[in-house]
Design a protein that fits this description.
alpha+beta, Alpha-Beta Plaits, 2 domains
């Protein structure tokens, strides 16, 4: 019995000494917390998307507090975060331009076919490593949902074999754009009124063979656009969003339907209710 009590006493003494040492180390060697960094970090949404150019919200908050980064780089936060930072920093912070994710592919199950049956790991990244994926169009959406899994606001779903973005929920973080192995997702201005629903850069005849909805570089949209906002680059229509006025003529003249007239909702109110 005495041996047990002695053992318990020794263990207790060691624990007490260790606790005291840890407290002393924390007191004398601890790094004091920067209250300004803490206040700035509290304004950020915590998505850690990297859209600001930093690894995550912690790094960005530190840079803003130190004055080495502009305070208006948080795209997901938009106007809501800009207002919060204005109050904390005591300066006027202009909100970044609203952007939303768009999947530049309309190669649904009816428009394209499979060149092979894929039975490997169910991710787009893994499938793309095997001869570019199982789809006939090597530029198209693989449809295994890597973007949907990465989306923090559940704004992406798979439908008819391709990814679709619910832009009323999209916060513009860009994580889907980063993770897509085909690079067919881009962040477009929220006020955009026309998009190209295709990423196939092959010549028209070859593109049409693998997808009925592909851009065939016929230049009808380019010639019809009254603002000169459309050009054909590498066999694919491109839109200059600074020139586009959303007239819809490109949508009307496109023979394959890859030019789309769109309306994206204002995201400010949605972000206020967003909970990471």
């Amino acid at each position: 019995m005495m041996d047990i009590l002695i053992a318990l006493a020794v263990v207790g003494a060691v624990a007490l000494i260790a606790g005291v040492l840890l407290a002393l180390i924390s007191h004398f060697f601890g790094v004091p917390e920067n209250e300004k960094v803490k206040a700035v970090r509290a304004c950020l949404p915590g998505v850690n998307c990297g859209a600001c150019g930093y690894k995550g919200c912690d790094d960005y908050a530190a840079a803003v507090a130190e004055g080495t980064a502009k305070p208006n780089l948080c795209v997901p936060g938009a106007e809501f975060t800009a207002k919060e930072l204005s109050d904390v920093l005591g300066i006027e912070v202009e909100a970044p331009a609203d952007v939303v994710a768009y999947v530049h592919c309309n190669g649904n199950c009816e428009a394209t076919t499979k060149k092979a049956t894929y039975g490997g790991i169910s991710t787009c990244k893994a499938a793309a490593m095997l001869y570019g994926g199982p789809d006939a169009c090597r530029y198209g959406c693989i449809g295994l949902g890597d973007c949907a899994a990465a989306c923090p606001s559940n704004a992406i779903c798979m439908k008819d074999g391709i990814a679709h973005v619910d832009t009323s929920r999209c916060i513009g973080c860009g994580l889907c754009q980063t993770i897509c192995p085909k690079h067919i997702i881009s962040m477009v201005p929220q006020e955009t009124e026309a998009v190209v629903a295709c990423s196939n850069a092959d010549k028209g005849a070859d593109a049409r063979k693998v997808c009925k909805n592909a851009c065939i570089a016929c230049r009808k949209c380019e010639k019809a656009c009254p603002q000169g906002a459309i050009s054909i680059v590498n066999n694919l229509a491109r839109i200059d969003y600074d020139k586009c006025e959303g007239c819809g003529i490109c949508d009307d003249v496109c023979p394959t339907g890859c030019m789309k007239q769109v309306v994206f909702p204002d995201l400010t109110e949605q972000f206020k209710e967003f909970d990471i």
